[in-house]
Structure formats: C-alpha cells, structure tokens
Amino acid sequence: MTDSIAVLGAGKIGEALLSGLLNGGRRADELMFTERHPERAAELTTRYGVRAVDVTTAAKEATVLVVAVKPQDIEPLLDELAPHAHRDTLIVSLCAGLPTSLYERRLDDGVPVVRVMPNTPMIVGEAMSAISPGRYATNDHLVTVEDLLSAVGLVVRVPESQQDAVTALSGSGPAYFFYLVEAMIDAGILLGLPRAVAEKLIIQSAVGAATMLAKTGEHPVILREAVTSPAGTTIMAIRELEKHGVRAALLAAIEAARDRSQELGKAHEPN
Description:
The chain is an alpha/beta fold. The chain has helices spanning about 10-25, 40-50, 55-60, 75-80, 100-105, 140-150, 165-170, 175-190, 195-215, 220-225, 235-245, 245-265; strands spanning about 5-10, 30-35, 50, 65, 90-95, 115, 125-135, 155. The radius of gyration is 21 Å and the shape is elongated.
C-alpha cells in the first residue's frame, strides 16, 4: 500500500517537496498539503493538482505528515495534531532546531518521529538532507523517509545529537556559498568587468568546482593545490585570504549557527 503524504506548511521547502515527489512519480491523489493563506493554497492546487486541506483532515487521512512550518509556529500546529496523530502516523519534521522529543512529549506514546535537516537546493532537486530517528522510529520508518527525500536530493543518516551541527553546516551552508559568490562578483566589478560577465564567470566556476568535488572524490586540498602554482596568482590570493582570517571567520560563523540551532530547540523545552 502506498503511503499518503501530507505536507504541513507549503512555503518554499514544502512546495519544493511536493514538486519533487510528483516529478519522482507520486500521484497527485496520494498527496495533500496545508496552507494558511487561501490565495497561496489555490495557486498550488492549480499548479500541481494537489488538494489543500486543513490540519485535522491531513492528520486523519495521511499516513505520513511532513511538518514544514517555521519553528515558531510549531506549538499551535501540535495542538491541532495531538488529538489525531497515532502510532500508525509517521511524523517527519523539517523544522530547524526542533528535537524529536518535543513531538513525543506533545503527541501520544508510540508516535514515530523522524527529524530531518534539508536545505534550500531542494527547490532544484539537489538537496542535502540528514535524517535522525526519534524514540519510536524504526528502520522501516527511516527507509520511508529516505525514499521520500531521495526525490529531491541526497540523504544521509546521523544521530540526532549531530543535527545542530548539520543545521549549521549544510542547512545554512548554501547561504555561505551565496555570500562568497556575491563577494566574488563584486570583486569582478571592482576589477573592471561588467556585472553580467562577472556573474557568468563566477557562477559557472562554482558549478564546475562543486561538480569536480562530487565526481572526482578528491580531497578539496588536492583540488586546490592543483590550481595553485608556485609564485602564481592563486597562491597570492590564498595568502590574502589567510591573512584576513577567512578560514577562522568561517569556523566561527558555523559555530554560531550551531549555537542558534541549539537555542531554538531549548526554547521549546518544558519549564
């Protein structure tokens, strides 16, 4: 029997998952979603042919509930889910920082929960998602979630204790790359290149570099050294990056993101 899936919260990530599932072969009648804004709900139903429902209907009809709301909106959602979620309902949480224990504390005993940290490349089918089982989630539940998320990218299993680090590294990771690309485009303009040319040069360089990392299996140090000739242009640039503490700044930034993820989880701990 095919699982029926409800996506609770149809923002960018929720919509990306719906689109990916449909492109991966799921039928529209196997899917449903919730959305607070009627105009947005109508737009998505028209675009994908998927039914918009309320939370109660989703909880009663779906066997898999994908929670894709903002962390600050989780409490009222759990209030709506609590009377209807049961042991045959799989909860898949895509909410940054929220532990499986929060759901287990608010829902009936035995409700399986899998925590997921995806990232925004899900929109183009290139997400990196890390999944962790809660107290009641089995290997079969993890396989179900892996199958679901493989429609929009790659999936890895990690202990839940590592999820805050995953959030800081890959959850926020695309933003670091966008920030770097933005700075490099500005540098191109500073050096006299038209913006359109600088953008094309840097974006394709980023795509090519990422593809090399993914396909060659080489350590990034090896690939970087292959570009770095003695007394050449690249080593001079690397020296400036080290002089300005770019590596240390990146480490500190990722630690700060990890700390914030931990804070989000603690905000929902019982007093």
